Amino acid sequence: MSRRANSRSATVSLMHSKAPRLLGAVAMLTSAIACAPEFDQPIPLAVGASWTYDTSETATGTSGTKTQTVTEVTDGVATLVTDKAGGGTTTSKQQDLDDAVVRLSEESVTAAGGPDGSESYDPAKVRVPKTLRVPGDSLTDSYTETVVDAAGVSTTNEKSEEWTLLEITSYDVPVGTFPNSFHFLRSGAVDKHFWFANGVGKIREEGGGQVEELSGYELP
After folding, report:
1. Residues 63 and 24 in one domain
2. Mean pLDDT over residues 182-211, rounded?
3. Separation CA 16–CA 7 (nearest Å)
4. ∠64-86-195 over CA atoms, to 5°?
5. What is the helix (H) or strand (E) element at residue 74, kind and residue range?
6. Which residues contact 119 (CB under 8 A, 6 or more apart)?
7. 30 and 91 housed in the same domain
């Protein structure tokens, strides 16, 4: 009897001793999130918004530029047209949701106007997460990718990518300096690093043998 009572007393004391630490950890996390910079508009998907990037191939040193422009927004889905190096365009459908900006599909055409492949995602794949607010936070994005090549051959693959917020920092790119830039690592078949400035968009991308840096932008 007394052993059970002592055991129960010890358990209660242990729970009480852990409670302040648990509440303290929750309070610290809540405080960190509250102090984090705003990140509610990582890509302003408004008609007329455009971004120009200096691009370079890490293996060859080949450099160029590419421009992305929001040409249309219908029922909350934005159409972004990217001018490809060497001619041709890629048109993607993207949407700003509560927890992420997502990409629904993309389709490429050659400089001559012929088909150059397409991709679609179910559910839509994460373009940039909005819920990772404290460095070290991560999430896993799983989706089915359907790829149609230029010859019309279709393949379907299950994909899984992990997004991790590495840091919130000031970052310099050709167009200027952006304080409170969110630096993400996307781990998957090809690891990539992304830097986003809230209210501006992507300012740098690195991975897959290529680097892109923002050299100009216009926001309506």
Report:
1. no
2. 97
3. 14
4. 40
5. strand 63-74
6. 105, 106, 107, 145, 146, 147, 148
7. no
Share of the chain above pLDDT 70, in %: 85
Look-up of token digits 């530029």: 65
Same domain, 30 and 71: no
pLDDT for position 33: 58
How many domains does the chain fold into?
A: 2
Within a domain: 40: no
- Is residue 150 one of the residues assigned to a domain? yes
Q: What is the mean pLDDT of the chain?
A: 88
Closest by Cα among 104, 70, 106 to 90: 106
Distance CA 83, CA 214 (A): 15
**Is there a domain that residue 54 lies in?**
yes
pLDDT at 99 over 90: yes
In this predicted structure, the answer to whether residue 88 has a pLDDT above a threshold of 80 is yes
Same domain, 23 and 113: no
User: Which range, of 10-19, 53-62, 104-113, 151-160, averages the lowest pLDDT?
Assistant: 10-19
Q: Let me know whether 205 and 105 are in one domain.
A: yes
The answer to whether residue 147 is domain-embedded is yes
Domain hosting residue 10, numbered range: 1-35
What confidence tens digit (pLDDT) does each residue in 18-77 have? Answer: 444 444 444 444 555 567 899 999 999 999 999 999 999 989 989 999 999 999 999 999
Judgement on whether residues 13 and 82 belong to the same structural domain of the protein: no
DSSP state of 38: P
